[in-house]
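Replying to the earlier thread about multi-chain prediction with a worked example.

Input:
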Amino acid sequence: MKRLAKWRLISLFGILALVLSGCGEPYLSTLKPAGEVAETQYDLMKLSTLIMVGVIVIVAIIFVLILVRFKRKDDRIPKQVEGSHKLEIIWTAVPILLLLILAVPTVAATFKLADVSPMDKKNSKALVINVRSHLYWWDFEYPGQKIVTSQDLVVPTDEKVYFNLKSTDVKHSFWIPAVGGKLDTNTENVNKFWLEFDDKKSNEAGNLFYGKCAELCGPSHALMDFKVKAISRDKFDAWITAMQNVKEPQKAQGAVAAQGQEIFNQSCIGCHAVTPSNKMPETARLAPNLSNFGERSRVAGVLDHNKKELKNWIRNPETYKPGNMMTGKYPEMSEEQLDALAEYLMGLKAQE
Amino acid sequence: MSTYAQKKGFGATLWDFLTTVDHKKIAILYLIAGGFFFLVGGLEAVFIRIQLAVPNNDFVSAGLFNEIITMHGTTMIFLAAMPLVFAFMNAVMPLQIGARDVAFPFVNALGFWLFFFGGIFLNLSWFLGGAPDAGWTSYASLALHSKGHGVDFYILGLQISGIGTLIGGINFLVTIINMRAPGMTYMRMPLFTWTTFVTSALILFAFPPLTVGLVLMMFDRLFGANFFDPTLGGNTVIWEHLFWIFGHPEVYILILPAFGIFSEIFPIFSRKRLFGYSSMVFATVLIGFLGFMVWAHHMFTTGLGPVANAIFAVATMAIGVPTGIKIFNWLLTMWGGSVKFTTPMHWAMAFIPSFLAGGVTGVMLASAAADYQYHDTYFVVAHFHYVIVGGVVFAVFAGTHLYWPKMFGTMLNEVLGKITFWLFFIGFHLTFFIQHFLGLWGMPRRVFTYLPGQGFDAANMVSSIGAAFMGLGVIVMLYNIIITSVKNVKVGNDPWGDGRTLEWAIPSPPPFYNFKQLPLVRGLDAYWLEKMDGKKGMTPAEPLGDIHMPNSSFLPFMMAMGLFIAAFGAMYHVNDKAWALPVMIIGLLVTFGSMFLRSVKDDHGFHIHKEDLMDEEDKGVKA
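Result:
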């Protein structure tokens, strides 16, 4: 018994620790909403939880009373009760009312979150981003600005951003937990929705939200992460201008990088573009656009952004993302070539 | 079972089970096969939790992990939960309505063997180049993208076992409609029989859409069709609809019989009739009906638009009402009763809070706009394990302890039963409660690993520790079964002492003809009524006479095996193997040959003569 009590204590502390660790990370958790969509959803979560906790409490009270009062003590036969119309009407009607309380805001929110009418208007000023999901990476096209980037989505804060979502291979799902719920990228049709990134909350989250693929899409589904840089409108405009100014592949700085560029132009450029301008059709964009690779936050979406990890990745992508489409598409690289490539790629920046 | 072994020797016993058409023996077959697949699926679950215990783990590779989760889900739903539920339906339902067998004993055996061969076929994928890896939902774009034969094993195996389930369901429907004893009106049927009835109706309507989906995908993968290839005019969302039009009723197919088992346990161990019987029946039918109206809540993020999402959200919430009615009726059944906390009652009591937790998260998930956050995260994983483990698996454990004496004539050890319960119950909540939060913190489901620094580490470790407790609970249960079978202490008709329905009025295990004379049913809880009137058993509704029984047959086994063989031919035909087509033809010949044989050979069964039945009585065989 003593041992059992000890275990109880340990598990109690364990639960306490978990409660204290609380609501998750501000850049990732749906419980730390950082935008209007996530906020709406968080409110619905709280409302439904509240109603449900009410139901649980009532059941728990009856349950405990039964445990305490009706344990078999003698051999008597209790009275055989058929039922009670009054009680049955109560526990049918009350849940219906509770569900109505939840149903009304649910329906309202469902329509609100699906309202993408501004993006379809002519001469609309709304920012539209075309998201194209590929096996284990994300392609982001800004059709109004005529630029393309990959893996790191850049968005302005405090305004609605509209998304066109589609997949180029198998079904994926586009999800930025802290900012709003997910929407699938289907293979046959474009799905549309909007998100809003709160400026203050973005700052608290380090201006970098975590994005995830939420639909099983193959071996590296777990590693199909992307990042979202949420910055003020001014900074966003500056970024757009800088990206637009990269009209042709940037010249490598220094001899090593120049050698890297040469290797890149021989082995990599068939799939990876290094200009952000949107000239190729989306089906021809076979691999992430690397125009501003030096400014990104991760290598391949999951590895730390440094030369060592970049070299590891190019040396054998299969180790880091099983089933990816890059493995085997290019000749094996020597250490020297890897150094050169890394030097070149890390130098690719749109902004100084 | 063990008594047969002593009497007959192993070979004869085996042949007996291979050819049996007796619903009680088929129930034992379902129990053994379902139990075996439950262990297989459980082992896969343990592998999943080991892999996810720490971040960046490499216990299994990414591809293998996807095979394990796919097989865990598929095995647990189709090959463990359904057959285990079928085991109790077969063992108990005919006894509860006072029948000597199901309506079509031969078809009953065929249903089992189809399920069994389908399950074996699916699991052979582990040894033949890799298991399916597109998830148990097998969404079309990924399933068509999947290399190797894994997904082919899935589509062929599920088709074979699906036919078995479908004919099983039809058989139960006909049995309940036609074979009730005199006086057993619909509104006097025990609730487990009612849930079997509604479940069978759900099977009848839910399995055909799945079959359609599987056939379309089979044509895509094996015969060059393009139903799900959008570049050639196909559409993968159709698969999602077909799958979930089946998939959602499927969860009610599993949970309704679980409700039925608990609806037997509460009255028995409270010594009180079920509170609000007619509203329980009504709620069961309503849940079954609404179960077909809500499938699109699995597709809230597919992009069906706000109108569809809003309608399906409200429809889904509506299911909470009849389910709530049931919970309160169970509670009020115990209220004022004389409650004895046996092992089955432990499971039943634990079911109420556990299933309630799963039910309320179900209502939360129904809120479409909020579901965009929950969908495909660990929150959903937590939710459906709370309803399926907290509901169905608890019911299977409860049913095993409750009906073990009726099926095998001996009681499982109560102390070990309670140890199993506590280990499993604690482990279950430890494993799955924390997963709600993992989902809300942003962890998607079906991930083979996760990176450190996202706040997932501690919670995943807790979850994995919980899984170990559940595993221990199952091991204690197996030990219990072994020592109980070895000791084999025989028990009488009504080993729990408080049996209410017809199955407790006859010996444990019942003679192969069940009822010497069909009983006269005078009301709900027929056996209880007689006991309260001071009688020892049921009043017979007919004079003692000859009993007509069906003959055993090996043909069901042959028919199922033929399809099993043919499936290999169909699958390897894609690889241009020379032997593939002949194998397929041979397999189909075995099946259709057996069917032909069954059609042309008259099999009138046999009669147990009145004199033999009277002899038995004289010898006092009747326990």
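The first strand of chain A starts at residue 127 and ends at 134.

Feel free to reuse this layout for your own posts.
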